[in-house]
Amino acid sequence: MNKISKTAQKELNTLKAKTEDTIDFSDIAETNASTWQDAKRGQFYRPTKQQLTVRIDSDVLAWLKSQGKGYQSRLNEILRGAMHNK
Fold first, then answer.
1. DSSP states along 24-82
2. Structure pTM?
3. Cβ neighbours for 64, distance < 8 A, ≥ 6 positions apart
4. Which of 26, 35, 40, 73 could anchor a disulfide with 31, C-beta 3.0 to 4.6 Å?
C-alpha cells in the first residue's frame, strides 16, 4: 500500500467529514438512463494476479495447451466460471 503524506491525509479527512449537502455538484453534468445504456460493468477492471505452483493432471494440461496460446488464461477463466456458479 502506498504511503500518503500527512498533508494529503489531512485533506482526505476533511473531505470525508463533509456531508453531501455541502458539496457543490453544479459542475457535474446530470445523467439519466440513456447515458448508461451502453455502459459495461467491469470493462476496465483487472484483478491482481498471484503467482503460484499448482499440480494439474497431465491430460488436463495437454488439453488446455492443445487449445492454442493462452492456456493459463483459459484455466483462469474456467476456474472463475466455476467460482461464479457456486
1. --TTS----GGGGTT--TTTT--PPP--------HHHHHHHHHT-S-HHHHHHHHHHHH
2. 0.48
3. 56, 71, 74, 75
4. 35
